[in-house]
Amino acid sequence: MKKIGLTGSIGMGKTETAKMFQEAGIPVFDSDAAVHALLGDGGAAVDIVSKEFSGVKKQNKIDRKLLGEKVFGDNVALGKLEKILHPMVGDMRSDFVNSANGDIVVFDIPLLFEKSYEGECDYIVVASAPANVQKERVISRPGMTEKKFRNILLSQMPDAKKREKADFIVQTDKGFDYARAQVQQIIKEIRNDINA
User: Fold this and answer.
1) Region 91-106: what's the mean pLDDT?
2) C-alpha distances in Å from residue 25, one per residue of 15, 33, 117, 183
């Protein structure tokens, strides 16, 4: 089974690209959704995280906003949180691979390069768009500010560098049909590799 690592900076269309792989019948593991489940109602990480970060547990789940306030801009606190969550997400990813049907799976990992997950993937796909399109998409999100956007960009590897490291690039600024055709071509090329 071939593993595709799908990544892309904020506002680059990674989530929509992941949906296109799903539409094409490729199982997708969503790392963000896994974290949501771990921190959500009755999630496996709730008690461990609330022990480490007091006051973030509300009802039976972690208040992500409160947790974010505790770790944002604090590398030590963020490191502690990642030490809890990353192995758990890794286990969920392994279970996903073991139960997935087919010859290809996709790992949707926002910080794939930043957290050095590329070694776990056979191919890397980067969703990308010009900087002005990216900014327009992100700034239009509720609660987003120029300052917040700049800080997020600083925490992510620059798009140009991601593109250099990619096996495939999905250009997301030319419409859904264009992106979908690229996704189908990627699947075709990988299947050709598998059958070669």
Assistant:
1) 94
2) 16, 19, 24, 12
Distance CA 123, CA 154 (A): 25
Beta partners for residue 107, in sequence order: 5, 29
Closest of 30, 37, 23, 24 to residue 6, by C-alpha: 30
Kindly state the DSSP code that residue 118 receives in the 8-state scheme. Answer: G
Question: pLDDT tier at 155 (50, 70, 90 boundaries)?
Answer: confident
Give the Cα separation of 91 and 44 in Å (integer): 12
* Residue-wise pLDDT tens digits, 47-96: 999 999 999 999 999 999 999 889 987 889 999 999 999 999 999 999 99
How is 65-100 classified by DSSP, letter by letter? HHHHHHHTT-HHHHHHHHHHHHHHHHHHHHHHHHH-
Options 3.40.1000.20, 3.10.580.10, 3.40.630.10, 3.40.50.300; which CATH number does 1-27+104-196 get?
3.40.50.300
To the nearest whole number, what is the mean pLDDT of the chain?
94
Q: Is 105 strand, coil or helix?
A: strand
What's CA 57's distance to the chain center, in Å?
Answer: 24
Domain boundaries, the chain: 1-27+104-196, 33-99
Element (H, E) at 58: strand 57-58
